[in-house]
Specification:
Structural class: mainly beta
Number of helices: 1
Strand order of the largest sheet: 3-4-5-6
Number of strands: 25
Number of domains: 1
CATH architecture: 6 Propeller
Shape: globular
Strand content: 35-45%
Order of helices and strands: HEEEEEEEEEEEEEEEEEEEEEEEEE
Amino acid sequence: MKMNEVNYQMNPLIMKTLLICILSGLSLQIVAQDFMAGEPLSSVNEAGVKMTMSANVKVYGSFHFTESCTFDPNRNLILAMNAGDRSEGAVPDGFVSLINPDGSVHTSKWIGATRDGLELNNPLGSTMRNGVLYTVDAGFLRSFDLKTGKPLRSIEVPGSTFLNGIGVAEDGTAYISNTRPPELIWKVTPDGTSTIFAHGGDISVPNGVAMDIDGNIVLVNIGNNKVITYSPDGKVVRTEYAAEAGNDGVVVTEDGTKYVSSVRYGSVSKIKPGQKAEVIATGIPSAASMCYDSVQKQLIIPLNPNNAIAIIKL
């Protein structure tokens, strides 16, 4: 056998070994990379300088099956939870976008600009408390630093089937609806312990959850129009009624007024303490889990598969 024939036979083996080493090195580098939040919309000009989008430009969009939102009054921004590719076997790519109060885009992907150091698949309900953003995501309660977007914790809720709405108490205890059977509300304490908080009674396909100013837990249902308020010990404090059933979102303002959005029938009910519900908006397609903009005094309502949000001035 000639020398050049030996080289010819060895080269493929050497090349394969080198390729494996290179790919392994790249894999290690990817795993080792830290979380990095996305930045406001910008582009690089001809001189190679990064330019933040000028104030006279408005961009709308950055939604992908947005189920819920929460409002950060300190930054005057709306945080929108966006589902990723929901098809079977898809790579997880849920994300959080930052939206200006007029509905224009601030940061298209704040959490989810990269997947480094991030677990976020299909975020649904969301809320914030004491500098922390909370969202429920495919059997997990996930939390993020509200200032930096950095992931903090991922707590699995054993026995859950479809975590949906969420409210968080002052001490960090989360109350989460489980929409599919078994239909109930989970209680997840800051140490990660999950227990059943409420089940049965008037619960019927539970969905949106919110906290009132007294620390009570407010629940709305898809299966009926009942708006149920529980005390922290699980007792029913009161039951009110939205104008329609099929409800998803619930907001409780400082004066105790409740706003309820019907994802099934497209209405928004306003319930003042001690009064019957009145409809303040209609015809909203897939009115999902809304949030309250306390600065501009408006409701922000995600429209699920319509990949948009609706804004109602109060």
